[in-house]
Amino acid sequence: xxxxxxxxxxxxxxxxxxxxxGPQGLPGINADEYAALSYEVDNIDFEYFNDTGLQEAxxxxxxxxxxxxxxxxxxxxxxxxxxxxxxxxxxxxxxxFFISDTDTIQYIFNHTYADVQLLIDGNFDLSTLAASYTxxxxxxxxxxxxxxxxxxxxxNLNSVINTYDIKEFVKL
Length: 172
Fold this sequence. Notes:
It contains 3 helices and 10 strands. It is mainly β. The longest helix is centred in the N-terminal third of the chain and has 14 residues. The chain is globular and about 80 Å long.
């Protein structure tokens, strides 16, 4: 029994030794410092589907997002001149257009953790929708951390860019 106690004491003594402290580890992620991620997607061509009656396009995300992240989508409306500088004009989705006195369309979207589905819905046969609404469209997709969402007005792209200090839009 004395030998067993001596062995246990020796084991505890040897395993309880401390050495020099190791190097500092990598910093953890601070939700307040998590930046928004943004992507610009050019040349989106919508395709009409008979089964849904909608114009649709799928944009794969370059990485899987968290379920708690918020996805915003903006459509390039056009380019205007401000003080001699060509300036892009962006509209948040959903976005409505009145095609005629009775015909309307709406750009909408949904998303999963892996992609964004862009849709054009309307109150008429969308297979006849003009190519100016369905071909060569440009969108910006912004992914925001949900914890920091209260910091910005998400209906204004410039507000999102300024709040999250977005420096550039990555082309997908």
